[in-house]
Specification:
The chain is built from 14 helices and twelve strands. It is an alpha/beta fold. The strands form two sheets. A seven-stranded mixed β-sheet has the order 9-8-7-6-10-11-12. Strands 1-2-4-3-5 form a five-stranded mixed β-sheet. Helix 4 packs across helix 5 (160-174). The structure holds nicotinamide-adenine-dinucleotide.
Length: 423
């Protein structure tokens, strides 16, 4: 029997956590951040490592390793998704948790940051196995999760299905608690507009940046890496706004058509075939070739560290909008800056997901539900104001949009820590 690839290392890539710390220190230096705040903000409050023995469909037992990192609860209960992927490790989860802290502080949500993950390959696990693993993970973290303490959500490899299991397992222990997790199915207290929310935020960020650059959106070409929740929604919504999506990709490779990809057709193809593999209405290219295309807008919306020191010099797009978390490593920042590329950073560009998650939590706690239009009307000003604040800060300190976003977040966090007093 072929060996199942349950765990793969991507440690040859730069450390995502080091990338986070490098940017944090750069921003902290610019604003002369007091050492007390640096010491508190740069480390996670709590790191939990669990080992979950789970019975597989063939009757054998396998132990799955999982993590939950609560980076900060200064601004409120910690918030952050759960990732199922073969390459999940502690370094990655720590970085993702820290980014959640900065993201929530940046957009002004009453949340801190956390992230979780289980090292597994969801593609080779049956639905029953995934359910048992998710329930075991929930039970082992029952004292960490809570609607006023730590609220998970979907991330790569998880969806509303896993969130429903978490909600149900947690509620079995503590009673009905829909606010303990967001990204739930609509039937179980999910919010309208949550599924497209992150891609919608990527679209909005791209349009705001295009406006700042004085371009016409109808004349812009765009390449998007990743065709999952974030990438496919960003592609669809940007194409609805009149941009020409010339390339898309997933883990099977890239697909290029300079006359424009019919995004709805590609979404339908993935619905029927599982992946883009074999997609006919485009020329196959590699993911690296997609990143290097001469387009106006590039949106890496798959995984972290796809643009590093090794390939940053090949990037031709003058505007990058980061749908994924951490797609550009810190060592690539200066190369891209020198090329004059404007980057709308992850903690700003993909904040639409957590913003709508916040409204899901509010609705659960009030027992009153909003229409999709109401959700959009509440989300748009939050993301637009965050974008404008980052843009102003980038001009004020003559730094990149990324460092400006960290500055805005760090100022809010350090004010919060200061107001808490001398503990
Ligand atoms: P997903 O699992 O729905 O989709 C991931 C996509 O990336 C798939 O199309 C997959 O084939 C592709 N992919 C995986 N490895 C790849 C590789 N090596 N090269 C190219 N493509 C590859 O995940 P998602 O929810 O869309 O998340 C994507 C990114 O966005 C992650 O970094 C995630 O942390 C971030 N993010 C997601 C949300 C959300 O609400 N889902 C919110 C904020 C940030």
């Amino acid at each position: 029997m072929a060996k199942i690839q349950e765990k793969v290392s991507h440690r040859e890539k730069p450390s995502a956590y080091e990338s986070l710390i490098t940017r944090f220190e750069e921003a902290a230096d610019i604003i002369n951040l007091d050492q007390r705040f640096r010491d508190i903000i740069r480390v996670a409050e709590r790191v939990v490592n669990v080992n979950l023995p789970v019975k597989l469909d063939d009757g054998t037992t396998r132990v799955f390793e999982g993590f939950r990192v609560v980076h900060s609860t200064v601004m409120g209960p910690s918030k952050g998704g759960i990732r199922y992927a073969p390459f999940v490790d502690l370094d990655e989860v720590k970085a993702l948790a820290g980014w959640m802290t900065f993201k929530c502080a940046l957009v002004g949500l009453p949340y801190g940051g956390a992230k979780g993950g289980i090292t597994l390959n969801p593609k080779v696990r049956s639905m029953d196995e995934l359910e048992r693993i998710t329930r075991a993970y929930t039970r082992s973290l029952k004292d960490v999760f809570g609607e006023d303490s730590d609220i998970p959500a979907p991330d790569m490899g998880t969806s509303y299905r896993e969130m429903a299991w978490i909600f149900h397992e947690y509620s079995r222990i503590y009673g009905y608690t829909p606010g303990v997790v967001t990204g739930k199915p609509l039937h179980l207290g999910g919010s309208k507009g949550r599924v497209p929310a992150t891609g919608w935020g990527v679209m909005l960020s791209a349009l705001l940046a295009i406006e700042k650059l004085g371009w016409k959106k109808e004349e812009c070409t765009c390449a998007i890496q990743g065709f999952g929740n974030v990438g496919s929604w960003a592609a669809k919504l940007l194409s609805d706004e009149g941009l020409t999506i010339v390339a898309i990709s997933d883990h099977t490779g890239g697909y290029h058509n300079e006359n424009g990809i019919d995004v709805r057709d590609a979404i339908e193809y993935v619905k029927n075939n599982g992946t883009l593999k074999g997609y006919k209405n485009a020329t196959q290219i590699t993911n690296d070739e997609l990143l290097a295309l001469k387009v106006d807008v590039l949106s890496p919306s798959a995984i972290e560290n796809v643009i590093t020191e090794a390939n940053a010099h090949t990037i031709q797009a003058p505007l990058i909008v980061e749908g994924a978390n951490g797609p550009v490593s810190a060592d690539a920042d200066s190369i891209l800056d020198e090329k004059g590329i404007l980057i709308v950073p992850d903690i700003l560009a993909n904040a639409g997901g957590v913003t709508v998650s916040y409204f899901e939590w509010v609705q659960n706690r009030r027992g009153h539900y909003y229409s999709e239009q109401e959700i959009q009307d509440k989300t748009r000003p939050i993301l637009t104001e965050a974008f404008e604040r980052v843009y102003e800060t980038h001009k004020q300190y003559k730094c990149s949009m990324r460092i400006a976003a960290y500055i805005v977040a760090i100022k809010r966090l350090s004010t919060g820590i200061d107001l808490e007093g001398n503990f």
